[in-house]
Amino acid sequence: MKAFPPALIERLAGAQSVAVLTGAGISAESGVPTFRDAGGLWEQFRPEELANVQAFLRNPDLVQRWYAYRRKLVREVEPNAGHYALVALERLIPDFTLITQNVDNLHRRAGSQRIVELHGNLLRSYCINCRRPATEIDLEAAAEGQPARCPACGGLIRPDVVWFGEFLPEEALTEAYAACERAEVFLSIGTSALVYPAAGLPLEAKRHGAYVAEINLHPSAIAREVDAVILGKAGEILPVLVETLRQARSRNAPAAGS
Known about the structure:
The chain is an alpha/beta fold.
């Protein structure tokens, strides 16, 4: 069984509040293509050309078709062992918050409940005029070559994700910072720590006294500032971490009748 820093297990075993940040690394283990992966027709475009409001208003049909392609890709993959291990961890911690930069919905499909989606969710869409949530029928109802529009007001339908030049949802960011302030342990998983403000969350938690551990294939940009760096795949490390935590709690539990 993999050896973890004793301080990490000790802090986790006694923690009432834990926060986790996940990035593209955990989704990549499920086969989710990264934002910039090539894909036939889409190879001729840079993501910055499509993932912004100006591009959407200029050519909504093109942008909608790109996001339809991306939705198809994420629906064809499954949550991996890392996703399921975080579900198990949530069940062990009274106050658990999963903060994710990913928009692929895999954490929800795995069964995680307390999720803060910093960058939105690829499988949700809404009308830019009346904010009405869009259904799959709404998205499919547009005639070929015509953009999908809201059946209630006629407004264009966009994906519920954060585009270049847009601010993160205020409510999500507030909830994420609150979780950082409460956390006794903070896990940063599969993120390069290059995209702010999400990249600053582990160190925000550390400033409030949390033990911060990073789980990554390679050290992130903030690796030298956290308490522990565990290199490897989240899908291999997290299940073992959860089992190690269970064993530690079992050893520390008072004997029956004592």
